[in-house]
Write a structure and sequence with these properties.
Distance between the termini: 12 Å
Number of helices: 15
Largest sheet: 7 strands, parallel
Strand content: 15-25%
Strand order of the largest sheet: 3-2-1-4-5-6-7
Radius of gyration: 21 Å
CATH topology of the largest domain: Rossmann fold
Length: 365
């Protein structure tokens, strides 16, 4: 069995790589090749999955629709990207006896053009809670997919009503989130996790978060903060933004899950990581940041997706501090927010369930 996996970018690469890993575990003789669209396939490589092609992200970081300048830069730098990608796929079409697409409908179309075979389609970018699939997208899925794996059960139910074979088997983004054992918070303190994001805007976001931290510290002396710094962010530059808070704030790389597991609440101006936070059953609080990933429009969409698990507030440091204190003091409220988050995101094990489904559907298991 030969499988080609197509994926949009870093988050989708990770889900695709986890599914590939489970396919190999369940069927060691399977041949898998990945085709990352906007990345160099690092998530596949570190799990031993072959990578063909790949490219650097566009100048806007993938958020070109949020600003005119981002659109112009992307048009200049990336106008040939889809065509080059299709050429790579077509050249290697012998690898695609079976195809898995992780991403959006345009990527699904590129796979169909290149391989001329129906795919298994993991669609994490759309949800009935936030951004339902358009009619044209539903028609394309009917033509180009065997099964659509959705972000949540609501989306799967909506698609099944349109005669699309859709299943919610869990979110691979919740898989492989195991403690790193690299961070333990100070005893006797309540920990608040901080996620400023993984892109260049994270530095500006942190400046805004610091004002919230000062407002919280004026109210409570028993709070400690831990900032999870992504590999794509400069540790020293982030550290310089915390002058005067060294005793109250830890800043750590490579301890994302450790921080989450120990936090009562998380201040998050991240993307996928915010979904992982609420999937752990931890309340998340957010506000408009300084870049394309933390615009009001995007965060309102995240609010629709995550429901009561996610607090989106206007940026006022004192008001945000007051709301955080309210959540920390109300155990019942935290439990309600936690239950909502786990419901919206599903339990871990999605990659395994999807891999099993595919192999059973193909008559291999």
């Amino acid at each position: 069995m030969r499988v080609a996996i197509l994926s949009n970018s870093y988050g989708e690469d990770r889900s695709g790589a986890l599914i590939a890993k489970e396919l190999k575990r369940l069927c060691p003789v399977i041949e898998i090749v990945s085709f990352p669209f906007i990345s160099f396939g690092e998530e596949y490589k570190k799990r031993g999955i072959n990578v063909i092609g790949g490219s650097a992200p566009p100048p806007s970081g993938g958020f070109f629709l949020k600003s005119l300048s981002g659109l112009i830069m992307d048009l200049i730098e990336s106008i040939n990207l889809p065509f080059n990608y299709i050429k790579v796929l077509h050249k290697n079409r012998s690898t695609g006896e079976h195809m898995i697409v992780v991403g959006d409908v345009p990527l699904l179309i590129m796979g169909w053009i290149s391989f001329r075979t129906k795919s298994y389609f993991l669609a994490p970018c759309k949800s009935g809670w936030m951004a339902p699939h358009l009619w044209i997208e539903e028609q394309i899925m009917k033509k180009c997919t065997k099964t659509v794996f959705t972000h949540d059960e609501l989306t799967a139910s909506n698609l099944r009503k349109k005669d699309i074979d859709a299943q919610f088997l869990g979110n691979p983004m919740m898989d492989e989130l195991t403690p790193e054992n690299r961070y333990n918070p100070p005893e006797g303190k309540i920990l608040i996790g901080v996620l400023p994001g993984s892109r260049d805007e994270s530095y500006g976001n942190m400046e805004r978060i610091v004002k919230v931290i000062h407002a919280i510290k004026r109210r409570r002396k028993d709070i400690h903060f831990a900032v999870s710094v992504a590999d794509t962010v400069c540790y020293n530059r982030m550290r310089r933004g915390l002058t005067g808070l060294e005793k109250d704030v830890d800043i750590i790389k490579g301890a994302f899950v450790d921080i989450l597991k120990n936090s009562k609440l998380v201040i998050s101006l991240a993307g996928t990581a915010t979904e992982q936070v609420v999937g752990f059953g931890i309340p998340a609080v957010s506000f408009v940041g300084t870049g394309a990933q933390t615009t009001k429009r995007r965060l309102l969409g995240q609010k629709k997706l995550l429901g009561k698990a996610f607090r989106f507030m206007r940026y006022n440091s004192e008001e945000i501090a007051c709301e955080i204190e309210k959540i920390l003091e109300d155990k019942n409220l935290r439990e309600v927010m936690g239950m909502e988050g786990r419901k919206r995101m599903g339990v871990p094990g999605g990659a395994k369930s999807i891999a099993e489904y595919i192999l059973k559907n193909e008559g291999i298991l």
